[in-house]
Amino acid sequence: MARKGCYPYDYFNSFSKFDETFLPPMSAFFNSLRNENVSDDDYEYVQSIWDIFSLQNLGDYHDLYMTSDVLLLADILENFRTLCLNFYKIDPCHLYTAPGLAWQACLRMTGVNLELETDIDMHLFIEK
Length: 128
Fold this sequence. Notes:
Mean pLDDT: 95
Largest sheet: none
Number of domains: 1
Distance between the termini: 55 Å
Number of helices: 4
Low-confidence stretches: none
Number of strands: 0
């Protein structure tokens, strides 16, 4: 598996769907959030995954899809962490947001040392 798969989100409206032993039709992969159908290439990819992994039911497909999706995301995150650690010497997993990472990177790259504001008049001016 070298790419993200397709998942019939709207098709799964009950737990009994996990026990179905056949791949749902192409129309079941319609994405109502994006209002778009799955492409022929994507559906062929899903069929090949079903055959290659000898999946027995949609529950097996679900588990395989979720595992590959999480592993792909983890791989991307680890590559991003490595990039940030090598370039900025900052681990993005220690920060909450992308703006926080950008702020830390700017401070690191410019070498600026911020001083604490101790003048009460300046503090009140900034607070306004």
